Structures are given as structure tokens and as C-alpha cells.
Amino acid sequence: MSINVSEVIWTIVCFFALLFVLKKFLFDPLIRFMEQRQAAIDQGLERGRDAQRKKDENDAALREKWRERSVEAKQLLAEGKTADDRERAWVLESTQKETNKALQEANQRIEQERRQVCADAQEQLPQLVSILAQQLLSGDTGGEER
After folding, report:
1. Distance between CA 146 and CA 140 in Å, rounded?
2. 8 A C-beta contact, residue 142 and residue 135
3. Nearest-5° angle of CA 61, CA 76, CA 73?
4. HEC letters along the chain
5. Inter-residue contact 11 to 3 (CB < 8 Å)
6. Which of 25, 26, 44 is nearest to 36 (CA)?
7. Are 108 and 114 in contact (CB under 8 A)?
8. Per-residue pLDDT tens for 16-34?
9. What is the per-residue pLDDT across 96-106, written as a single tens digit (0 to 9) for each?
10. Mean pLDDT across the stretch 120-130?
């Protein structure tokens, strides 16, 4: 077996020609495709990180607003309770005043009627004594007839 130099040279030339064709039409486009794909993946990951960062910022802002609204709600409830307590105290006080006034007026009317009854009794006392004396003297006690 002999080595044919021309065959070796042609084999080397064909090998390099094949290598050149594969590089130009297969490897370079494949590498470009892979780099583009990697760039798209990296860009998607970066957008995902940005979205996560924005979500975290929004969550923090939302929690802060929620806390502020909660504080405002508690303040409003406290103010409402205070106003309700003041209103209740005012109603109780006015009711107590009205009740005391009504009791005072009732006591005055009772006292006035008592005085009137006493005055009427004083006026009618001589007549009643006279009638009673006449009945006692006449013997009529207003009892049963026999």
C-alpha cells in the first residue's frame, strides 16, 4: 500500500473546503441563532426581574396605603364614638333636665292643689260643723230607720 500524495492533498483540500462550507452555512448561522435565542432569554429574564421589582414596589405601596387607610378608619371610628358619646351624654342630660322640670312642676301642682283643698276645707268647715251639730241635735245620725 502506498500513500498517494495527490490524494492526501485533495483530501486535505476537500476537508478544508467542507469545513469552510459547514462553517459559513451551518456553524455561523447556528451560532447566530443561539446567540439571538440567548439574548431573547436574557431579555425575558430581565423583564421578569423588572416586573417582579415593580410588583414588590407596588405591594409595598399598597401595604403602606392599606396601613394609612386603617389608621384613618380607626381615627374615624374613634371620632364617631366620641361624637356618639357626646350626643348620648347630651340626650341624657336634656332628658334628666326635662324629667326634673316635670317633677318640679308636678310637685308644685300637688302643693297648689293641697293648699286649695285645705283652703276649701277651711271655708266649708263651719258649714260642715253646723250640719253635723244639727244632725247630732236632731238625733238623726244618718243611720238606719227603725
Report:
1. 12
2. yes
3. 30
4. CCCCHHHHHHHHHHHHHHHHHHHHHHHHHHHHHHHHHHHHHHHHHHHHHHHHHHHHHHHHHHHHHHHHHHHHHHHHHHHHHHHHHHHHHHHHHHHHHHHHHHHHHHHHHHHHHHHHHHHHHHHHHHHHHHHHHHHHHHCCCCCCCC
5. no
6. 44
7. no
8. 999 999 999 999 999 999 9
9. 999 999 999 99
10. 87
CA geometry: angle 70, 73, 79, nearest 5 deg: 145
pTM of the full structure: 0.44
Amino acid at 1: M
Q: How many residues does the chain have?
A: 146
Task: Report the distance separating Cα 46 and Cα 4, nearest Å.
Answer: 59
Question: Could you identify the residue written with the cell 500513500?
Answer: 3
Radius of gyration from C-alpha coordinates of the chain:
59
d(CA 59, CA 53): 10
* Dist CA 84 CA 91 (whole Å): 10
